[in-house]
Amino acid sequence: MTSSLALGDPKLDSDHDELNRLIEALAAAPPESVVAALRALQKHATEHFSMEDVDLRDMKDGNASCHIDEHAAVSKSLEEVCVHVAPDPASARAQDMLIRLVAELRRWLPVHVLEMDAGVASSRTKKRLGGAPIVLNLKGSASRG
Question: pTM of the full predicted structure?
Answer without folding.
Answer: 0.85
